């Protein structure tokens, strides 16, 4: 979907977050990624997981490469999304060798694993599903990139899986004063992980 189809409040919030993100230097991003990885690895549910769904970060997102590497080093399976079509995410195991896929459905090209595809229902193997977000409010409503991929994908998550978003501290919003507009299809997240803390919501 194009920006013009987003609700005005979502659009304004995306612009604010994108402006905040674009001000961070590469050095700052690297330092934040190290702190985020350390915080994430303190989360008991993540430490106990045998399989974690993550994502290959785009340049403006908190960098996940260290976290994915560390999880794999500990023997945790890591799944990454593969864009199957305009609405569907497929999944494949992160083997540390990602290739930048051809641009599909005009989404910015994102690195993807080239190993066997597990299907949209492959997400069900994950004990923890870590999702990208531009912002999350304290009631767990998530602002994504506006294509609805994750709202659909999360229908395949295991019932007991923990769904957590990786965000910067200034992207956690107070639901009473600055809520993210929640729509019927929105799948809430249960926790956020930032460079300074992890926090259960709701
Ligand atoms: N790292 C990462 N992987 C992900 C997601 C994500 O948010 N982050 N997704 C989460 O759903 C899915 C891909 N969704 C995407 C949705 C939009 C754009 C994109 O290029 N958006 C443009 C502007 C808005 C638009 O044209 O829609 C951009 O950001 O420049 C890219 C990926 C699956 N993989
Ligand atoms: N479960 C669903 N079934 C049908 N349509 C959906 C579903 N989830 C989302 N959509 C569609 O996707 C559009 C974008 O949704 P939304 O703005 O919540 O995406 P997002 O969570 O920000 O994006 P993403 O998951 O790609 O990061 C919605 O306007 C809606 O039309």
From TrEMBL:
Gene3D superfamilies: NagB/RpiA/CoA transferase-like. It is an enzyme of class 6 (ligase). The keyword Nucleotide-binding applies. It catalyses: (6S)-5-formyl-5,6,7,8-tetrahydrofolate + ATP = (6R)-5,10-methenyltetrahydrofolate + ADP + phosphate. The keyword ATP-binding applies. Its cofactor is Mg(2+). GO terms for molecular function: 5-formyltetrahydrofolate cyclo-ligase activity. Keywords: ATP-binding, Ligase, Magnesium, Metal-binding, Nucleotide-binding. Its EC number is 6.3.3.2. Belongs to the 5-formyltetrahydrofolate cyclo-ligase family. NCBIfam families: MTHFS_bact. This is 5-formyltetrahydrofolate cyclo-ligase.
